Amino acid sequence: MSTVFTKIIEGDLPGRFVYRDDNVVAFLSIEPVEYGHVLVVPVQEVDKWTDLDPVIWTQMNEVAQQIGRAIIDVFGSQRAGYLIAGFEVPHLHIHLFPADDMSGYSLAKAMPADSTDPAKMDEAAAKLREALDCDDSGRPN
Questions:
Q1: Which residues are catalytic?
Q2: Residue 85 pLDDT more than 90?
Q3: CATH fold of 4-132, please?
Q4: All structural domains of the chain with their residue ranges
Q5: With 80 as the cut, is the pLDDT of residue 28 above it?
Q6: Is residue 89 over pLDDT 80?
Q7: For the HIT domain, which residue ranges apply (predicted)?
Q8: Long-range contacts made by residues 68-74, C-beta under 8 angstroms, separation at least 24?
Q9: How open is the CA angle 50-55-60, to the nearest 5 degrees?
Q10: The pLDDT of residue 104 is above 90
Q11: Can you give the pTM of this predicted structure?
């Protein structure tokens, strides 16, 4: 059975993509700790980062680093937070978010999906795509 992330990747569920290629995608979290909270996900369904092909793992981290720089630029944060938790969805994902302190590292403090402002979510995705030089689907220009 497909994970919720596979359903987003395949277009069966909506997602605000900021980056995508044949191996790695990145889209906004529906329960962000801050606007601009991105999930970097391999297209291949793998539960644990320790089980992922090292080549794809390297690619995921290269993409995460690019997005992290974009997060700092777009949102003016001191850093881009990076977190792997993975218990909520059995499909590897890296959380990236604007960080000025350690508060974002507690996903329990994330905004519920129904309390986010859709306009702010759309704006965050658009600004990140622009900073990454990606089109509206997240593909690099």
A1: 93
A2: no
A3: HIT family, subunit A (3.30.428)
A4: 4-132
A5: yes
A6: yes
A7: 4-107
A8: 68/96, 70/18, 70/128, 70/131, 70/132, 71/36, 71/38, 71/96, 71/97, 71/98, 71/128, 72/98, 73/131, 74/36, 74/124, 74/127, 74/128, 74/131
A9: 75
A10: no
A11: 0.96
